[in-house]
Amino acid sequence: MNLVSKSPKSRPNRALQALIGAVVAAPLGYLFGGYLVSLEDAGLASGVNLTWSDVLALLSAAMMATTGLITLAMSLSRRALGRQINPEEVRPATPAQAVFYAQNGLVLLLAGVMMAIPVLAPLLFAPISPMVASSAMAGLIALFLVQTVGNIAIWMRSDELMRRAMAEIAAVSFAILQGMLFLWAAGEKLRLLPALTLWDAASIMMAAYLVIGMAITWRRGLAG
User: Fold this and answer.
1) Rounded to whole angstroms, what are the CA distances from 56 to 29, 94, 198, 201?
2) Residue 195 has pLDDT above 80, yes or no
């Protein structure tokens, strides 16, 4: 069963959607930045310094969570979702398509929450206690298991076009990231580059995966 349309979207339509996304994301980023500044001014974030990888992780988390919420909201209206899937045909999406997009939105939302927790937990509960840290880690493991089940369900419900796109994203991401990490590790070993933590690498990996994923879905005409 094909759950997504294979009809390509027009470039102007996708450009307009990208512009709308930027307009929505910019105020969210500004408000979140102001929130962090207010925490610091109030002394609630004392002793917690956000590194560049923390900021990168929060940006990736905000993008995934926002996209997930928008996708979830769109899946609630079969008529609007039908126009999004195939603008050339005025017909509502099927129940299976609505469920498919809801699953995608939920997985993206969970990914955003998971990416934000390691940064926000020490910030909001500073100084973070071992009990709070353990609870946050337990929550992350639970969310990871739920998201894994969701990803498997999405793969099983996807049509061949979507599966090829997901496989291409994974292959390109692996090829680029493993090369970049190897070269950086070699430079680090030769004392030419600064050391990276596992969190630095994870933040870079997720941000690169998002950029590669958007580029491939855009090229294949699947960007919605």
Assistant:
1) 12, 37, 14, 11
2) yes
